[in-house]
Amino acid sequence: MEAKTNGPSVNAGRVMDGPTNPMVTPLLTDLYQFTMAYAYWKAGKHNDRAVFDLYFRKNPFGGEFTVFAGLEECIKLIANFKLTEEEISFICETLPGSCEEGFVKYLRNIDCSDVEVYAISEGTVVFPKVPLLRVEGPVAVVQLLETPVLNLVNFASLVATNAARHRLVAGKSKMLLEFGLRRAQGPDGAISASKYCYIGGFDATSNVAAGRLFGIPLRGTHSHAFVSSFMSPDEILERSLHRSDGSSTCEDFVSLVQSWLSKIQWAKALGNTVGETNQSELAAFTSYALAFPNNFLALVDTYDVMRSGVPNFCAVALALNDLGYKSVGIRLDSGDLAYLSGEARKIFQIIEKEFGLPSFGKTSITASNDLNEETLDALNKQGHEVDCYGIGTYLVTCYAQAALGCVFKLVEINNQPRIKLSEDVSKVSIPCKKRCYRLYGREGYSLVDIMTGENEPCPKVGERILCRHPFNESKRAYVVPQRVEELLKCYWPGKSGKVREELPALKDIRDHCIKQLEQMRPDHIRRLNPTPYKVSVSAKLYDFIHFLWLNEAPVGELQ
């Protein structure tokens, strides 16, 4: 299956389709957004032009990078933001006190035609303090967007980052399958996880609904229940199987499997280590191969991996080979995965030599069973023969960290910069409408992200630029970039007439994410003790931040 194209489509007069989840409506917000909207309207401030930044303060999972995701769903929400009469009635009934008719009329006319959204491309590796989205528009409308936009970005970015971390530990050559549907936090958690794990570098999902919605490749075979549901080969009624080229038919595939099992049991190269295997398991494998001869992958740990599962798989795989089919491989769902994968590989290699079957020794081995970053890292250190990982619970639930912690802060209103102060410096916001750039060095790696005031000149290649820490006076460095990339692009221009960036296909976002990780210096993305990535401001913006800080902070008085 190919990943579907996201982005605008004409549908019933709308600019683009609505959010994937129909529950994402203007009511998916906190009550105080509507109470503030009413208060803004009463004060005559509802149309004041406001600028908000959406960003996070700390990278998740103890790492030093985050993958930005959720932008497409945000734009779909904004493109279709309109309150129905029923929703307006509910809001008026819910608000404390009485709701004036003028406010009701205002709510009827609310949309995002006066809103502009600038964002970093989805799938980009991002860092604390740098705005992921900048939302401009009438203050009341933009505040109504705050909660749903945070909801759409927080989990999406968290799970995409979790997936990217698993990809980095597993390595480029391994296939990663997302198996988390049954353990995810409800249907939306499952659908979102499948989508954003794919963006983060996973290859496929078991989630059929996500496969249909997003075109993500689907993978899945059978469970232990399928294996244990068989009692003996006598239960298999339809025993014939056509050759792969259709030239002839094997009338008794079950007998062919039994003959190959006998050959394996007597093979000298295996040292007579294969004895009697579980015949009900063999029946299950044979039945599954008859149903899916081109996609035969067996779960081999229902009874005994090495004494039964692997030999039974080999017997069925060799019988399929006689008819021109190539088996996919085995799945291990329990036990010592490093040891069992190694022993299974040895048997595959022996059979390849014993029976002259090219590439049988490279038969794929998939491992599952509550895998996580630590398990993958341990397997790498122990040495293993696993080709593919099926990962579920720890991946989709983001077990290692519950939330990313994105925030949505006012940075300018009516062209007046605003700052949010705190005794905790990490919670001090960076004021004013900003432009954000990524500066790259000679080796192609990104060196630093820098924020500047909107009207400052763009950093130039080969030009010496002073990059300053936003709050620490002593942290500063000159950078001479070899490439400059502007990060914020216009994804929703409203009626401003500006050119809008198109929303890319899901696979293109995934490819962008993988490329982004390749452009990061390895020490920034390593699992243990990663080096913090530098986020800076221009000298001019640094001076302005501290001027505004001193101007807004009340002066204490000692008595």
What does this structure look like?
- It holds the Pfam family NAPRTase_N.
- Its cofactor is Mg(2+); Mn(2+).
- Pathway: Cofactor biosynthesis; NAD(+) biosynthesis; nicotinate D-ribonucleotide from nicotinate: step 1/1.
- This is Nicotinate phosphoribosyltransferase.
- By secondary structure, this protein is an alpha/beta fold.
- It folds into two domains: 31-164 and 401-552, Alpha-Beta Barrel (nicotinate phosphoribosyltransferase); 221-386, Alpha-Beta Barrel (TIM Barrel), CATH 3.20.20.
- It has helices at residues 31-43, 71-79, 85-94, 101-109, 139-170, 186-199, 208-214, 224-228, 253-266, 279-291, 305-322, 337-355, 373-382, 393-396, 506-518, 522-525, 539-552, and strands at 49-55, 66-67, 116-119, 125-126, 133-138, 175-178, 204-205, 241-242, 249-250, 297-299, 329-332, 364-367, 388-391, 407-413, 416-417, 434-440, 446-453, 465-468, 476-479, 483-486, 489-492, 534-538.
- The strands form five sheets. A six-stranded antiparallel beta sheet has the order 15-14-1-5-3-21, covered by helices on one side.
- It is elongated, with a radius of gyration of 29 Å.
Topology (elements, then pairings):
Layout: H1 31-43, E1 49-55, E2 66-67, H2 71-79, H3 85-94, H4 101-109, E3 116-119, E4 125-126, E5 133-138, H5 139-170, E6 175-178, H6 186-199, E7 204-205, H7 208-214, H8 224-228, E8 241-242, E9 249-250, H9 253-266, H10 279-291, E10 297-299, H11 305-322, E11 329-332, H12 337-355, E12 364-367, H13 373-382, E13 388-391, H14 393-396, E14 407-413, E15 416-417, E16 434-440, E17 446-453, E18 465-468, E19 476-479, E20 483-486, E21 489-492, H15 506-518, H16 522-525, E22 534-538, H17 539-552
Parallel strand pairs: 6-7, 6-13, 10-11, 11-12, 12-13, 17-22
Antiparallel strand pairs: 1-5, 1-14, 2-4, 3-5, 3-21, 8-9, 14-15, 16-17, 16-20, 18-19, 18-22
Helix pairs in contact: 1-5, 2-5, 5-6, 5-13, 9-11, 10-11, 11-12
